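User: For a benchmark we're assembling, each entry needs the component sequences followed by a predicted structure for the full assembly. Here are entry 17's components. Please fill in the structure.
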Amino acid sequence: MTTATPADTATTPAVPASPMAAAGADRRWVWIVVAAAAALPLLRSVVPDIISDYRLFLMSTMMIAAIAVLGLNLLTGFNGQISLGHGAFYAVGAYTAAILMDKLSLPYWTLLPIVAVVCFVVGFLFGLPALRLEGHYLALATFALALAVPQMLKYRWLEDLTGGVQGIVLLKPEAPFGLPLTEDQWLYYYCLIVTVLLFWAAWNLLRGRSGRAMMAIRDHSMAAGTMGIDTARYKTVTFGISAAYTGIAGALSASAIAFVAPDSFGFFLSISLLIGLVVGGVASLPGSIIGGIFTVLVQNSAQALSNFVKNDIGLPYDLSPYSVYGILLLVLMYVMPTGIAGGVVMAWRRLRR
Amino acid sequence: MEQLIQQVASGLANGAIYACVALALVMIFVSTDHINFAQGEMAMFSTYISWQLIQWGLDYWIAFFAAVAISFVAGVLIERIVLRPLHTAPVLSIIVVFIGLLAICNSVAGTVWSYLIKEYPTPFPKEVFGFSGLIGAHQLGVVVVTLLVLSLLFVFFRYTPLGLAMRAAAQNPVSARLAGVRVDWMLALGWGLAAAVGAVAGMMVAHIVYLDPNMMAGILLYAFAGALLGGISSPGGAVLGGFMVGVLENLVAYLGNAIEKGFGVYIIGNGEKLTVALIIVITVLTLKPSGLFGRVVVKRV
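Assistant: Structure for entry 17:
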């Protein structure tokens, strides 16, 4: 059960095998990108029109989506366990954060460790039955999970906690220590710090012993087992870590949007994560960032796209993000099976030759 | 007691629809080992086509058969055009393509026919007869149509040369090819038949759940549960599983209702339908992945 297509494994085995090929090859670039991202809000006084609060908020949501896609990538890309229901863990994270803030009025910055632990446990537990499932069957079980989540959140006994259909309204985090930042600016920094930390952790995880074990299981689980890797433990723990990443993204999004409601965690969310994974590149860390940026862009430009189709092309139809996703999923599988990140790397290699 | 029988009867009617969709899933599964996540949305799309034909003034049954024929052709085309190039692709690519198909069907139906819920006609007479209100005329009709489709398929697979060729292609593609069966076309034909059977299910259920682009999501999940329960490699088992899941679904709701009435404690109701399906899916997959009647697959290492 490899994640790369045969054509891809034949020509560029390096792409799925070493996630750091693009990121780690030149570490300087990573630092430059991070520094640029950190400096971005400071440029506000120079170009206030370009760096508006809304743009910063949008970038925060992109980072959140990138973390969620990374979570899915750890499981599906690097460990080969296909999940169509990662929206469920996103929901668990968001609701855990929201309930802790709402009922116990914990400050938002204490939440992420708690959310990570809760989601890790949930993911680990779901990983136990998933051990017995492979490929299509695991996809089927997680597909069912994705469809059932909104209903579970509306369960009557949980209504006191979850607020039922109404959801929970929260407060946006404010800048600490009296820093002169607006809410959106602080949110941007908060997300940036969390994103950098989580990607750094994932990078270290993947290049170490455990990361190699994860990928060995993906490439040939039985061979990995004969080499002494405890496949069952690695698979369940990976499920837990993946759920924790996605759950943290959910918690961040609850803080960012300051609202959670059951119907925002439907099947569409899981599909968004899947398309983030496929567009960015399966088993690629920078791909996860590209995927995160992409999903937010599609959802935000849906209206503009729709207008473009209606006014400029003259079709009397609305173009929803859903249709864009569907078409892209199909087209990418034929044109760029390794996603945009993989496609760019391949094109670059071909050009340099 | 009468309420219980009523619940079972309507469970059988729902089960008939799950059985149809489950059968469509099994037909694709046995020949290609793929689980078609887009099956429900394809059926929904066929139902919209028939609705459009009826709106244009065609008779119900003409529209019905036209939609079945169109779905058949569409199914064959999808296999030939979309899935053929991915014949040797890894599982993830194929699942992604199915999800893409699902999204496309859903959004195209939404843009062309809007997301507003529409009423869908029933071809069966309104008046209740015979069973004194135990089961509605439409529900009875659904069961009859389903059984008819099933027996037609059975006859097709059992007694025609083409059906034999299709079974051969599914069971042992290499030998079938050596014996002169055009295996590739048999797979496409299987897809066409699956799309057609799904279309029948969609047109039967649309009167009950009303027509909208998201109508099949829950039904697909129950069809999965039914197919798994009966054994996803066994057509007969899947049909039986579909009926069982339909009855089970109604019994769970009935039981939850009774508990709430008797003890005043709410445990489970109609709001947890999908959760029940999820539990069935995961339980069957973990405890007995081959289902009740399925073949146990022994992998050669």
